[in-house]
Design brief:
heterodimer, A: about 240 residues, alpha+beta, four-stranded antiparallel sheet, 8 helices, flat, B: about 130 residues, mainly alpha, elongated
Chain lengths: ~240, ~130
């Protein structure tokens, strides 16, 4: 059993080192050690499943070893920035103030064609429109247009929009979301009254009911023929969550 | 963070408990089987084939009894190897084949000794 555990840990460390050496281009969305764990777990689970001569505990213990490794790395990453930088790497600015950082691209072994492709994938056709581009530790490229090409914000227009928070889902697939109802400071009679105004007798006839921070109630009836209603249930200043 | 610490502690405890228990259990079974195999060897050496066959059957029955529990912790190939060796040993004793008996006793000895060795976390096993 210990043999299996140490073999798993040794293989895991070796694979993480290899993936780090391959660089950020090889992954997307996952940190290097998470990518390795994803690869290994699938194989570790599959082997004892198909080979009845192998005790299931072999696979279970190996996966447990990966869980231990993942938890230890996550914990250390949270406690030590240095460790995190070592295990996950650091984000790299590849375009700064519109200028491509050639030295950084060379260091990352990141091809210019790959950079242009990633910029286009982010919806920017003209590289001249890019202000900053950051290659993240999970291999994804974050692209920020320069100030002349970014979308206009209310602040640019001198507007002060109201608060836009998370809408509360009050009914989900006919089921009442009591915690959200309580969070909003409402009760069932209030909800039933609102639904009755829209022609619904109970919340069970509702597929989805949500209330946004502007006081708008969105209701969709259950079933394929369910109608969509948007009604002003509250004034914006009455919103308390 | 607290949850992660708990996960680490519990995972580590389970690994140590399972690993430690399997190692001790396999070692205990191996030592018991080897001492019974020694009785078979003594009986054969003294020329008492009847006693040798009885001892071998007792050894085989005991092995059968312990095998299922053992297979939870070790590869079935290892336990199957011991199975085959004991069956051939009994056949050799029944046939009165001294060379065959000596060969199968040596094979059984090796197979039973290897069980705990393969489980021990030596560098050679890990690498």
């Amino acid at each position: 059993m210990f043999t299996v555990f140490f073999r798993t840990m040794a293989l895991f460390v070796f694979t993480v080192v290899v993936i780090r050496c391959m660089g950020k281009r090889q992954m997307a969305q996952l940190q290097p050690f998470e990518f390795v764990i994803t690869l290994l777990i699938a194989d570790l689970a599959a082997s004892p499943m198909s080979d009845t001569g192998t005790p299931l505990l072999y696979g279970a213990l190996s996966i447990l070893a990966l869980l231990l490794a993942h938890s230890a790395i996550s914990l250390l990453s949270m406690r030590s920035e240095r460790f995190r930088a070592w295990i996950c790497g650091t984000p790299s600015i590849v375009i700064r103030d519109g200028k491509i950082q050639v030295a950084e691209l060379q260091r990352l072994c990141y091809d210019l064609s790959d950079l242009m492709e990633a910029v286009r994938n982010r919806g920017v056709l003209n590289p001249a429109d890019v202000g900053t581009a950051v290659l993240e530790t999970n291999g994804a490229l974050s692209v920020f247009p320069n100030s002349a090409n970014r979308p206009v914000t209310p602040q640019d227009m001198g507007l002060a929009p109201g608060y836009e928070g998370v809408p509360l889902t009050l009914v989900l697939d006919g089921r009442l979301q009591e915690a959200n109802l309580k969070l909003g400071g409402f009760d069932l009679p209030w909800l039933q009254k609102q639904l009755a105004l829209l022609g619904y007798e109970t919340h069970r006839e509702v597929f989805l009911c949500s209330l946004d921070t502007q006081g708008r109630l969105l209701v969709q009836g259950a079933g394929p023929q369910g109608k969509l209603h948007i009604a002003q249930a509250l004034r914006p200043d009455q919103v308390t969550w | 963070m607290k949850f992660k610490s708990w996960v680490i502690a519990v995972s580590l405890a389970m690994v140590l408990a399972l690993g430690g228990f399997s190692l001790l259990h396999v070692r205990r079974v191996s030592e018991s089987m080897l001492s019974m195999l020694e009785q078979v060897r003594i009986a054969v050496a003294s020329g008492d084939w009847g006693d040798a066959e009885n001892q071998a059957n007792v050894l085989h029955d005991d092995w059968h009894r312990r095998r299922e529990g053992l297979q939870v912790f070790i590869s079935h190939r290892d336990t199957d190897a011991v199975d085959m060796t004991l069956v051939r040993l009994i056949a050799a004793i029944q046939a009165g084949d001294s060379f065959g008996v000596a060969r199968e006793i040596a094979n059984a000895d090796t197979a039973l000794e290897n069980l705990p060795i393969r489980e021990t976390p030596y560098i050679a096993n890990i690498l």
